[in-house]
Write a structure and sequence with these properties.
CATH class: Alpha Beta
Distance between the termini: 15 Å
CATH architecture: Alpha-Beta Barrel
Number of helices: 8
Bound molecules: zinc ion
CATH superfamily: Metal-dependent hydrolases
Amino acid sequence: MLINIHTHNPEKQDNQQIIYNLIIPETDEALETFPDETIPKSWLSAGIHPWYINEDNQKQQLEKLRQLAQYQDIKLIGECGLDRLKGSPLALQEEIFIKQIRVAEEIKKPLIIHCVKCFNELISIKKIVRPKVPMILHGFNNNFHIAQALLERDFYISLGAAILNENSNAAHLLPQIPLEKLFFETDDKEVAIQDIYEKASFILKIPLDKLIDTIFANYLEICS
Ligand SMILES: [Zn+2]
C-alpha cells in the first residue's frame, strides 16, 4: 500500500491510501456546518492552518478541532504550524499551534506541520511543550542544515513534488534522510503520488516496492 501522507485532493487509486487534509474554517457560518457530507470517505487530517486563524473565532475553531479529533478517520492533527510570510501575527500562530499540539497529545495522534521560515521557533516550541506524539514536517524543501536540526530533534520529514526537480533542496537531501523518518505527499500539487515514489526510488536506488512498503511501515508505526 502506497501512502500519501498529506493531500488536498480526494482522488486515489486502489493501491493507495491518502490522508486528505481538512482545514478548519474561520467563519461562524462555515464552522457551524463543517464538515459537511462532501468530505471524502478516507483517512483524514484536521487542523487550524496558520493562514486561517480567526482571532475572534479561535475558541470555536479549537472546539471544532477537539470534536473532530475524536473521530477514528482523523489520523493526524494538522496541518498546523507557523508561517512567517502569511497569515496571522506570529505570536497568535504560536499560541494556536501550541494548543493544537496539546489536542494531539490528549488523543495521542501525530501532528502534520506546516512551517515557513520559522524553524527556530518550531524547534523551541517542541523543546518547551515536549510532545510525545510524532511530528511530521510536511512539504519540506529547505537546506540540509535545517533538515539535520529537525532530524536530531526526532521530527519526521515529508517530501513532495519538489523532488521531481533534481536540482531542488528536497531531491538533494533525500538520500540523507533516514528511511524510517521519511514520508511522501502530493499536498496541493497536480502530481501523482506514484511519480514521487518512482523518483525517490530512482534517487535512492531502492526498488520501488521496497520503498513503498518501508514508508507504509513508518505510517503504521506512528498511526496504529
Ligand atoms: Zn497542505
